[in-house]
Structure formats: C-alpha cells, structure tokens
Specification:
The complex is a heterodimer of chains A (497) and B (196). Chain A has three domains: 124 residues, no CATH class; 90 residues, no CATH class; 202 residues, no CATH class. Chain A is 75% helix and 7% strand. Chain A contains 14 helices and five strands. The longest helix of chain A is centred in the first third of the chain and has 103 residues. Chain A is rod-shaped. By secondary structure, chain B is mostly helical. The N and C termini of chain B lie far apart (60 Å). Classes of the chains: A alpha+beta (497), B mainly alpha (196). Chains A and B meet through helix 7 and helix 14 of A and helix 5 and helix 6 of B. Chain A: This is DUF3450 family protein.
Chain lengths: 497, 196
C-alpha cells in the first residue's frame, strides 16, 4: 500500500515541476508585455496602432487573398504546364518506343543481310576453291598427258590460276575449258607428228612421233622404231632404253607407213613398256643362276654330242643290217660264198660285218653251234651299240637333281639375305628366289630332251638288234639249207659225201 | 577357226612351255591311236588257229586276211622248203620278223606320258620365275601383274597332268594288249610247229 502511494506521489511531483516551469515563462512574457504596453501615452497609440494593425491586417488579408488568388492562378498555370509537359513526355516515350522498334527491325534486317553476305561469300569462296581445284586437276591431267610433251607451253596458262591470291575470272574458266576440250580431242586421236625427243643415246633427236590417244607414243628416226616413255617431271619424251621385240617393231613401222590397221599399244600407262626394258633374256637368267648352271649346261652340251654321235652310228648300223646283211644273204642263197667273204672283208671291224664274218667263218659247223656263234657275235656287238646310252640315262636323271641343288643353294642365299635384312622388302627376296628357280628350269629343260633322246636311241638299238637277229637266223637257215640241198644232191647222185 | 582361236586363247597364258607340251601330247595321242587301230586290225582281221593249221595243209593263204597269224603263215608259206627242221627255223624267223612291229612306239608313248608332267613342272618353274621377277620389279602391291606368272605356272601344270594321266593309262593298256598279242604269236608258232 505504501509503495503504491509512493509511486503516485513521485509522478505527481514530476507534473508539478513542469507546470511550475511553464508558469514561469508565461509570467516573464506577461511582464515584458506589460512593460511594453504600460504607459499613459501608450493608450492612444494603442488605438492608432490597432487601427493601423487592422488596416495592415486588412491589407495583409487582401494581400493574402491576392496572393492566394495569384497562387491559385499560378497553380492553375503550372498544372496546365505540367499536363502539357506530361503529354510531351508521353509523346516522346512513344517516339522512343517507335525508335526502339525500328532499331530492332533494322538490326534484324542487318542480321539477315550479313547472313546473306556470309552465304554469298562462302559461295564465292567455294566457287574460287573449286575453280582452283579444277585448275590443279587440269594441271595434273595435262602434266600426265603425252600432248604436253609436244606443246609444253600450254601449262603456262594454268600457272597464274594456281596462285592463292588470284581471283579466277571468266577468262580463266574459258582457258580451262578450252584446255580440257583440247585434251579430250587429243585423247581420241591417233596422229603422226614431227617432233623432238631424247634418243636412246641421250641426245636430242628429231623424228616422227606417233601418239595413240593418251596411251602410247612411238617414234621413228633413222629407220629405228621404238616406244617413247613420257616423263612427267620435265614434260619430255624419252626413247625406251631397249628396242621392242622385232615383231612389235615391224608392226609399228608398218602402222606408221599406213600398211596395217593394227598396232601394239600399252594401255597400262607405261607399266608394260617398263617391262620391255626389264625383259630378262635367257642369257641374263643363266648368268644370274649361280655356279650350278654350268654343270647343267655342260651336261646338255655333252648329251647333244652323244645323241648326234649315236644317231649317226646307229643309222649306219641299221643301213648296213638292211643292206649288207640282205646282200650277203642273197649271195649265200646262190651259194656264192667267196663273194660273201669278200664283201665282209671290206669293212672289217664294224658291227654288222663282224657278225656276218663270225657266221660265215662258222658255216662248216653244225646248226646249233652256228646259231650260238651268231648269237654270241651279236651279244658281243651289243655293248658297242649301247655305248653312251646308260650315261645318257644317268645324265637325264642328274640334270633335274642338279637344278634342284641349285635351287636349294639359291634359297639358302635368300635366307641369308633374310637373316641380314629381314623380310621387310619382298623385292630383294624375290630376286633371289627367281634366280634360285633358274637352275631348276634349266635342269628340267635339259633333262626332258635327254629323256626323249634316250628312249629314242634305246628303241633304235633294240630295233637294230632285232633286225640283226632276224637276219642272222635267216643266214643260219640259208647255210643249213645249202648243206641240206648239197646232201640231198649227193644222195640222189649216189656220190658219197 | 573359232575353235583354233579358243584353243590358242587357252594355251597362250601358259607361255612358251605350252608349245613343246602340246606337240609332245599330240604326238603321243597320234601314236596311241595308231597303235589302237593297229592292234584292232591285228585282232579283228585275224584267222582262228584252226584255220591257220588248215592253211598249212592247203599250202595256200586265204585272200584278204591281214591279221597276226595270217601274216606269219603267209610269210612262212612263201619261204617253206619242205624240210621239217629247216621249216621250224623258218617259222621262227617269220615270227621274229613280226614281233618288233607289235612293241613298236610303246616305249615312246610311255616316255612321252612321263615327260608331260615334267613339262608342266618346267612351266611352273618359269611361271614362278616370272612371278618373282614381277615382285622384284613392282613389289607385292600389284596382284594383277603377279597373276600372269601364277596362271602360267598353274596352266602348264594342269595341262601336263591332263596329258600325262590318260597317256599313262593308255600306255599300260597298250602294253598289256601287246603282251597278249605276243602270247598269241608264241602260241601260233608252237601249234604250227606241231603240225608241220
């Protein structure tokens, strides 16, 4: 209870303090006002002043009214002005919007234009690019064309077009199309022109140059006819280092003279002509075949000698068998023995004569003895007839073996090359293999004729021996018949033998 | 003409070896056909054994018989003396004279048949040489150029074997045929000797 009261008292005290201060100020003011208004003189003045103040007040009021009016007027004006300006602002804003819209439209237009421009530019670049590509292609085509060798200046027109900074115009296009048409016409043309080329001896040579389309070129100079090789590097014709085979050369000559409608040409773009210069003759192959080629060739030569000797020998024997034995048999048939002996004696030492001699000498013997003597004589001649034939047989067997041996040694060399250089370059290896095979080839080509000759000669010997045996039996029969006839005659005449 | 061109087109890739190969096989077949016809003639136009003995008795050969026995008997009748021992020898001689013609050319046929594969091998070797030459020139990158040599190698081998296999067959067949004919000749001579 006390606390509450205390708090209220304090508050009341605070209010009291502020109202005391307010009273003090008002008192002071009142004192000043009193001091100002006090005096006896001041009463009249107060009225005048009041009047004055009233007038002033009135004036002030009027003035206030006036200014109030003026203010209203001004406000009105200003408001009008504001409205006007606001209208202007709206118009300007609209203007800005329209301007922005136009800017946007123009920007779009610009974008469209620049797109079109870039399109056009790329098209143009493409065009010039393709022109340049065509020009480059054309240059390659022309550089490979045989006609360029005849007219090298036509490449010059293309040189400027290949320059990167050069803008190709319609003139250039015309030049290119002209060149292409010229090339097209040339590729379908067969023509004989005068021209110069590098001859086989390396000198500049003048002659007739025959071009057959874009395939082949050939030359004729000083009765020499051959193919021309075209070099792309310096656009010149070079005569092939070796002349073509005889038949092809004759064909070319006849074609150039117009005697024939057919001509040999190379459609492989120079590869076939290159083969001409690389043709291996048999001599080259033999030289490259290594050491074993020589024994094989020696066997071949030896076999030829043997074959020739045997052929003539057997031919002589055969003729003798037919002729001499037949003649002797005829003489014997007539009983003219002395003449038989004389015939045989002429050429003693030759097979047929020896056999005959043996038979004639033994004509007094009985039949079996005579037969065996003749058989023996023939057997004795057999080695002479068959001489060299086993050797021929052996050589026929040995030649392919030697060839095989050569191949194997060649292969060994090839594998040495492999161990040295590896298998990276097939060219190096195949050269060795090709050389290795040469011996087998030679071995076979020597062996086959030897085999055939051997068969022929053996048959010939058999034939001769058969003939001889037959003639010998005939001789026996004749001798026997002579004795029988003599015996019979003796018996019939009654004369003892 | 067309056929010739075709044959040439077939043989031409085989190279130079094809020529001896073709020539030797043509020779072989000519000989084979000649032999076959000859043997057929010897066999077909022959007289039976009994008739041959009869001929001996009649002392005359029938006209038109060209067979093996007929030939021997005809030759014998022309030289016959009447003496028995001598006649036997004369018969032997006649048979001996007929004998070589039976075996003629058989060895040659056999050799030609044996040589044909060797020609094929030779062609293979030359073809391989060509192939390896091409490789030496162009490397292994050009199969078209290599194909020429390879086809040369294969065609010659094929042709060699084609010629050799029937040739060997025919050679064996003809040998057997000749053996039979010789047997018949021996038999004829033996029988005739008995009936002299």
């Amino acid at each position: 209870m006390n606390g509450q009261n205390g708090g209220a008292t304090k508050r009341a005290r605070g209010c009291k303090a502020s109202s005391v201060r307010r009273y003090a100020v008002a008192g002071t003011l009142a004192l000043v006002g009193l001091w100002l208004c006090t005096g006896p003189v001041a009463a009249e003045d107060m009225r005048a002043a009041l009047q004055k103040a009233k007038a002033r007040y009135e004036a002030a009021l009027a003035e206030a009214r006036e200014s109030q009016k003026r203010i209203t007027e001004d406000r009105r004006l200003l408001e009008r002005e504001v409205a006007l300006l606001e209208g202007q602002v709206a118009a300007l804003k609209a203007d800005i919007d329209a301007g922005n819209a136009r800017i946007e439209a123009l920007a779009r237009e610009r974008a469209a234009f620049s797109e079109r421009q870039s399109e056009d530019e790329s098209a143009l670049r493409e065009l010039t690019g393709s022109m340049r590509v065509v020009a480059r292609d054309l240059e390659t085509t022309l550089a490979q064309s045989l006609l360029t060798a005849l007219a090298p200046q036509r490449l010059d027109a293309l040189k400027s077009m290949l320059d990167k900074d050069h803008f190709p115009g319609l003139d250039d296009a015309k030049i290119m199309s002209d060149l292409l048409f010229e090339e097209m016409a040339f590729s379908g043309e067969v023509a004989l022109r005068k021209g110069s080329f590098i001859g086989r001896n390396g000198n500049e040579t003048q002659g007739d140059i025959l071009t057959i389309g874009k395939f082949t070129a050939a030359y004729r100079a000083d009765a020499e006819v051959g193919f021309l090789n075209y070099s792309e590097e310096n656009h010149r014709f070079f005569a092939l280092s070796s002349l073509p085979p005889w038949s092809i050369g004759r064909n070319l000559k006849a074609y150039m003279q117009g005697d024939t409608d057919e001509v040999t040409l190379d459609i492989s773009d120079g590869a076939a002509l290159k083969q001409i210069t690389h043709t291996n003759t048999l001599m080259d192959q033999i030289r490259s075949g290594g050491l074993l080629v020589w024994p094989i060739l020696a066997i071949g030569v030896f076999a030829i000698l043997i074959a020739v000797e045997r052929v003539f020998f057997l031919k002589g024997v055969h003729d003798n068998t037919d002729g001499v034995m037949g003649r002797v048999n005829d003489l014997a048939m007539q009983g003219r023995w002395e003449e038989c002996d004389a015939v045989v004696k002429q050429k003693k030492g030759r097979p047929v004569y020896d056999v005959l001699e043996a038979g004639l000498c033994a004509r007094g013997e009985d039949r079996e003895t005579l037969e065996s003597i003749l058989q023996e004589a023939i057997l004795k001649e057999l080695p002479r007839l068959e001489r060299f034939l086993p050797m021929l047989n052996m050589m026929g067997a040995i030649a392919p073996l030697l060839g095989l041996l050569g191949t194997v040694t060649g292969m060994i060399t090839t594998f040495h090359v492999i161990t040295l250089y590896g298998t990276g370059d097939p060219r190096m290896l195949s050269g060795g293999i090709s050389e290795a095979l040469v011996t087998t080839m030679l071995g076979l080509s020597v062996a086959i004729p030897i085999m055939l000759t051997h068969t022929f000669l053996s048959r010939r010997v058999e034939h001769v021996v058969g003939d001889m045996e037959e003639k010998a039996v005939a001789l026996t029969n004749i001798i026997y018949r002579q004795t029988v006839v003599a015996e019979r005659r003796a018996v019939s005449c009654g004369v003892p033998n | 003409m067309d056929f010739v061109a075709q044959v040439y087109a077939y043989l031409q890739p085989g190279g130079i070896v094809m020529f001896p190969l073709v020539i030797s096989s043509v020779c072989m077949w000519v000989l084979i056909i000649d032999r076959v016809l000859y043997y057929r003639q010897l066999g077909r136009d022959d007289i039976p054994l009994r008739q041959a003995v009869g001929m001996l008795a009649a002392k005359a050969a029938p006209a038109g018989a060209t067979g093996l026995r007929a030939g021997v008997v005809t030759a014998f009748l022309a030289e016959r003396t009447g003496d028995r021992d001598l006649d036997k020898k004369i018969l032997d001689r006649c048979a001996m004279r007929a004998r070589p013609s039976i075996r003629r050319a058989l060895a040659l046929i056999a050799t030609l048949a044996a040589v044909a594969p060797l020609f094929g091998l030779l062609g293979t070797v030359t073809g391989m040489i060509t192939t390896f030459d091409v490789i030496a020139l162009f490397g292994t990158g050009n199969p078209k150029a290599m194909a020429g040599g390879i086809s040369e190698a294969l065609i010659t081998t094929q042709s060699g074997l084609t010629a050799a296999i029937p040739g060997l067959f025919m050679s064996t067949y003809l040998m057997r045929r000749a053996g039979r004919l010789e047997g018949r000749l021996d038999e004829t001579v033996a029988v005739l000797k008995r009936h002299l």
